[in-house]
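Incident log, structure service

09:12 report received: a user says their structure output differs between two submissions of the same chain.
09:20 pulled the input from the user's history:
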Amino acid sequence: MSGPNEGDVSPSQLIDARISEFSDWRGETLARIRKLIRRADPEVIEEVKWRGVPVWSHAGMICTGEVYKNAVKTTFAKGASLDDPSGLFNSSLKGNTRRAIDFHEGEEIDEEAFIALVRAAVALNMSARTSARSQKKPKST
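09:34 re-ran on a clean worker, output below:
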């Protein structure tokens, strides 16, 4: 008998499983990031894409949580459009769209600044959705 189908498992459960794959600082960091995202936006939608990468969305993608040997990377899909007064973005700084934060072992997370970035990303997604709706032309009859 085989295990449960992936279709029977919620994205949140898949993220739980992904976190548990890492019994070191990387799992702890990814779990902390997830908790902060949920605190910033209780309505966040959790998904898993691209071979197990956690993705958080609200009116569009907010960010991803990728685990590497020496870093846990949080990539903000529209990070280049976000204000980052605390200077959290430290990776993928040259592109026109994304920005990322690489968290390394032993580093503290500026929780309030991270929460502010998540909230700004949600607000940007919401404003883009509202703008797109208002620009739709009514159908002529």
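09:41 both user submissions now match this output. Likely a transient worker issue. Closing.
09:42 reviewer note: The chain has a mean pLDDT of 88. Helices lie at 11-20, 25-40, 111-135.
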